[in-house]
Amino acid sequence: MWSIFRKEVASFFNSLIAYIVIGVFLLLNGWLFWIYPETSILDYGYAEMDTFFQLCPFILLFFIPAVTMRTFSEELRSGTMEYLLTRPVSLWGIILGKYLSCLLIFCLALLPTLIYYFSLYVLGNPAGNIDSAAVAGSYFGLMLLAGVYAAIGVFLSSLTKNQVVAFLVSALVCYVVFVGLDQFSQLFSGSVQYLIAQVGLSIHYNSLGKGVLDSRDIIYMGSVSVLFLLLTYQSLNNIRK
């Protein structure tokens, strides 16, 4: 698994698209958080990062699929999938190696955004006037959400040779599971509305952003990731047969 992991990380950072994708991710977040008048924290007047954590999941709808779209699509397109499946690595080793490499790339891209927290911590009046627990919970929720997005992207990449198709469908499915189901639930009322909203990810992500790490939210988001990794396993197993 670790050989696959190292290969994927090295392959990603050996391409120009890696730096473009990460650069665009950081520029968009920085522009929206500090400069854009409608969302700028400087105009908001409060030392909190709610704006960043509300907007970042939507930016990830494009960032994560851009990272995952090549994981298996490139193998299928170039004809190296058969070679990969015959290597002395289990299917789970291949899947987890590629999946974890995508999560590492996300973590490396997210790391510079910690500057936002330290800046607000220092600039607060008084200094340190920021809800650190809520920020930590939101970062944790963002990582869980990225894990779900990555699992979806890896699965859909295993279904097509076309990276563009994998990117577009992954972005669409991620949108549906994050906010689409929540919007769909508004068409109903009572327990039906509640149940549909609970299936979506936004309610669990927002709950973690309050600084309370509810095991139900963590287990649910982790379970969705596992579900799509299981689907990836089945997809690769069908190819191997």
List keywords for this structure.
78% helix; mainly alpha; single chain; 0% strand; 241 residues
What do these coordinates show?
With 241 residues, this protein is mainly α. It has one domain. It is 78% helix and 0% strand. Helix 2 (16-35) runs antiparallel to helix 4 and helix 4 crosses helix 7. The longest helix has 26 residues, at 132-157. The chain is globular, with a radius of gyration of 19 Å.
Q: Into which percent range does the helicity of residues fall?
A: over 70%
Q: Output the helix-strand order.
A: HHHHHHHHHHHHH
Radius of gyration: 19 Å
Average residue-wise pLDDT:
89
> Count of helices?
13
The total strand number stands at 0
- What is the structural class? mainly alpha
How far apart the termini lie comes to: 21 Å
Main sheet makeup: none
Helix and strand topology:
Elements (H helix, E strand, L loop, with lengths): L1 H12 L2 H20 L5 H4 L5 H19 L4 H6 L2 H6 L4 H20 L3 H10 L8 H26 L5 H23 L4 H10 L2 H7 L6 H26 L1
Helix pairs in contact: 1-7, 2-4, 4-7, 4-9, 4-10, 7-9, 7-13, 9-10, 9-12, 9-13, 10-11, 12-13
Summarize the structure.
This protein is an all-alpha fold and 241 residues long.
